[in-house]
Design a protein that fits this description.
This protein is mostly helical. Helix content is 80%, strand content 0%.
Length: 71
């Protein structure tokens, strides 16, 4: 690909970063993962499972963005 194409793709990728709110998702992942380290995390297995699923969902977005950026 030409340098112009690469620049255009980079611009589009950064626009997607904002549109998909990747930075907020990364912060939320950190916050939710911190909850999993608390001693009472598994006291409510249903709540714990919900948090883990939420983390997984957020990571699917951030990983897809990361994969596109590194392609």
């Amino acid at each position: 690909q030409t340098p112009e194409n690469i620049k255009e793709l980079s611009k589009r990728l950064e626009a997607l970063r904002g549109s998909f709110d990747i930075d907020a998702k990364l912060e939320l992942i950190k916050s939710e993962e911190h909850k999993t380290t608390e001693n009472d995390f598994w006291d409510d297995p249903q709540k714990a499972e919900k948090i883990l699923k939420h983390i997984s969902s957020l990571k699917s977005w951030t990983n897809a963005y990361s994969d596109a950026k590194n392609a």
